[in-house]
Amino acid sequence: MKMLGILKHSIRYCRRPVAANLQSTIGSTNSNKRTLDGQLDLRCTHVRHVHDDAKRVAEHESVIFRQMFDGETYTYTYLLGCPETRAAILIDPVYEMVDRDVKVAEEMELDIIYGLNTHVHADHVTGTGKLKELLPRFKSVISKSSGAKADIHLEDGAEFKFGNQCIKCLSTPGHTGGCMTYVLPEHAMAFTGDALLIRACGRTDFQEGDSGKLYESVWRKIFTLPNHFYLYPGHDYRGFSRTTVAEEKKFNPRLTLDKEKFVQFMKELDLAYPKLIDKSLPANLKCGEISKEAILGSEDVLSHMGNH
Ligand SMILES: [Fe+2]
User: What are the residue boundaries of the Metallo-beta-lactamase domain, all occurrences included (predicted)?
Assistant: First the structure.
């Protein structure tokens, strides 16, 4: 019975990392030559890639992926695109960084049609409201349980598509009541928002935060993904960019505690009140639809060194 469960799990999730797919694509081109010691010489392919335009390079990727950073709030925004249809999404766009995100997408000939928030952020204003103004087809997306305004609301287990790409939505409450982790099973990637950070996790002392729930969410939803899956967090304050399920199960100093100790640890964190929470929460509950003056008029926005 247990074996059957493991087998089903393996079938559900792709076991071949993106890099392997890319390598096999490159290796199968006819132009490759063998060197004297019989190894495939990929230099010609590499040179051709360097000189190709962004779109053609992207065609070799099974999913187009860019990780972008906001140095003011230490927030990661992720651009994901379908290589065939050019449909694209942004995960957790930041209001002040929307122009950068749109420019990158234009350069890559991608059409951003959705902006997905992992949760109602307390440390920055979401860019989804501004994106709706700039891009006529754009729609905002968030979990139903977040209670926030959006064009599309998602529930646990929902599947969400852009182009030929599919995202599985996992409800992972605890940091906030409406946190969602977005998984791309075909590409062994998961975007955890603030539920799980690299060697850390989001705080649980406001916005329906609940340490016990967070512990259960991580262990039941995120740590049950295959070990090789890459995890991409909502923030990082120490220069890390990604991790894996296996790494965090072994090395996350908080989540490797037992549940009781984890709850106690979170209780004793004694973190400062987030500087932007009074401005960002009301704005984010309305999809970030707030006047530019109201946001840029806040000194907090410019001086904020976020602690999600
Ligand atoms: Fe957060």
Answer: 74-235
Ligand 1 center to residue 40 CA distance, Å? 46
pTM of the model: 0.78
Helices (H) then strands (E): counts for the chain: 12, 14
The four Cα atoms 257, 261, 266, 270 give a dihedral, to 10 degrees, of -120
Q: Would you say residue 22 has pLDDT above 70? A: no
Q: How far is the CA of 56 from the centre of ligand 1 (A)?
A: 36
Q: Give ion ligand 1 contacts, CB < 5 A.
A: 194, 308
Give residue 210 CA to ligand 1 midpoint distance, Å: 13
- Residue 36: pLDDT band with limits 50, 70, 90: very low
Q: Which residue has the higher pLDDT, 271 or 216?
A: 216
How many Cβ atoms sit within 10 Å of the Cβ of residue 62?
19
pLDDT in tens, 95-133: 999 999 999 999 999 999 999 999 999 999 999 999 999
* 153 CA distance to ligand 1 middle (Å): 18
Domains observed in the chain: 55-291 (3.60.15.10)
